[in-house]
Design goal:
The protein is globular. Strands 1-2 form a two-stranded antiparallel sheet. The protein is built from 14 helices and two strands; from the N terminus they run H-H-H-H-H-H-H-H-H-H-H-H-H-H-E-E. InterPro entries: MFS_dom (IPR020846), MFS_trans_sf (IPR036259), TM_effector (IPR010290).
């Protein structure tokens, strides 16, 4: 079952979790990402809340989520193929420019009072199309910024930056929506896209570590899927991710319902709940920088923990207890993603990594697209609390089944090192 150079089963590499920040190109990229991720979360919150204001329907918020993530379901694998074949920096320049233009349009319409739900849905779909390429390109571009030596820690820092944006963005969006309306959130995202484009043009191209382009052949997509299916570390991680993406990652739908129907807190409560999840996620991401060994069983057990905490959150009777459970959900989410994302990336070779990560992103975003409609309908039909019980309960059961499967297969374990970031799957 070993698919790369074997490493000692009990390897404990030297650790410097923030070493990638010593690389100038990566430092610029990470710095601009703090602004970009904050603005992206601001736009996402403002977009969902604008649809809720226009329609007074939680199900309509679910449709918005579905439209934004549907392109990944339709074209996600092709996006990964583009990432493997073409220059990642140029692809990011195109995608960020596209998102910036769409955000300008939304800002103008929202600030002038001409926004309609159909316009917001169309904008969500266009941004989703850009995300088909943007998201896997961002994931894989880290390889070129830091090279092999710092890859695992750079992936971890990227996730922490994403969660920092998730902490800042919803809080600022909640303040903006309550004070001056959500249109300014769209304007800020357009500005953040301009900053990202500027940063990409200022990177030192001589210091990049471009991956060799794969040999073009008519079965490139099948090759990527085949690699995912025959690599246990990737296959089981993606299965666990699929359940979590469809049910547990539909937090905007669930939190909108809790903010309005359960606790009656409105826009400020919605922003607060999202920020509490991000607080826990940031803490979890930073804590995971100390992880030295990647294990497949950690991925599954972290998914079980995350889903179980969400199930418990559905039963919390007050805002403080519900908020505390949301922080724990954030921690659980990062325990899962900081185990799964690096494991999947490091389990794939550089020539196929774009396609492998496209599968990962497809499941993350496509699952949310399907789950947005599914959970929106469930919440509308049976209420917020039962809906959240389902959102946590189904992935928890799936995690228990996967745990039993892995136990019967010998509890596979994956070891990796910062000095030599290839992995080997070895028995416990």
């Amino acid at each position: 079952m070993t698919h790369a150079l074997p490493l000692p089963a009990r390897l404990r590499p030297a650790f410097d979790g923030f070493a990638p920040l010593k690389v100038p190109n990566y430092r610029r990229f990470a710095g601009s990402n703090v602004l970009a991720m904050s603005a992206t979360w601001m736009q996402r919150i403002a977009q969902d809340w604008l649809v809720l204001q226009l329609t007074h329907s939680v199900a309509a918020v679910g449709v918005t989520t579905a439209l934004q993530f549907a392109p990944m379901l339709l074209f996600g694998l092709h996006g990964g193929l583009l990432v493997d074949r073409y220059d990642k920096r140029r692809l990011l320049l195109v995608t960020q420019s596209t998102v910036g233009l769409v955000s300008v349009m939304l800002a103008v319409l929202a600030l002038t009072g001409h926004a309609t739900v159909l316009v917001v849905w169309a904008a969500a779909f266009l941004i989703g199309c850009a995300t088909v390429v943007d998201n896997p390109a961002r994931q894989v571009f880290v390889n070129e910024l830091v090279g092999r030596e710092h890859l695992k820690n750079a992936i971890t820092i990227n996730s922490a930056v994403f969660q920092l944006g998730g902490l800042i963005g919803p809080a600022v969006a909640g303040i903006l929506i309550g004070a001056v309306g959500g249109g300014w959130a769209f304007a800020i995202n357009a500005l953040a896209c301009a900053v990202t484009v500027t940063m990409l043009t200022r990177l030192d191209g001589r210091a990049l570590h471009p991956a060799p382009a794969p040999v073009r052949h008519p079965h490139a997509l099948r090759e990527g899927l085949g690699f995912v299916l025959r690599t246990p570390a990737i296959r089981y991680s993606v299965v666990m991710l699929a359940f979590l993406a469809v049910f547990t990652l539909t937090m905007p739908v669930l939190l909108a319902a809790f903010a309005t129907e359960v606790f009656g807190l409105g826009a400020s409560g919605y922003g607060l709940f999202n920020s509490l999840v991000a607080v826990g996620a940031l803490a979890g991401a930073l804590g995971c920088t100390a992880r030295k060994v990647l294990r497949l069983r950690t991925v599954v057990l972290s998914g079980l923990l995350w889903a179980s905490v969400l199930t418990a959150a559905a039963l919390m009777p007050s805002v403080p207890t519900f908020g505390a459970a949301l922080v724990a959900c954030g921690v659980g989410s990062q325990l899962f993603f900081q185990a799964g994302n690096p494991l999947v990336q490091l389990s794939s070779g550089p020539q196929v990594r774009g396609r492998v990560m496209a599968v990962w992103v497809l499941v993350v975003l496509g699952g949310q697209g399907l789950g947005g409609v599914l959970m929106g309908g469930i919440v509308e039909a049976i209420g917020a609390r039962p809906g959240m019980l389902i959102a946590g309960g189904v992935p928890a059961v799936a995690a228990l089944v996967l745990t039993a499967v892995l136990a019967r297969r010998g509890a596979l374990r994956v070891a990796t090192s910062a000095q030599r970031p290839y992995v080997a799957i070895v028995p416990r």
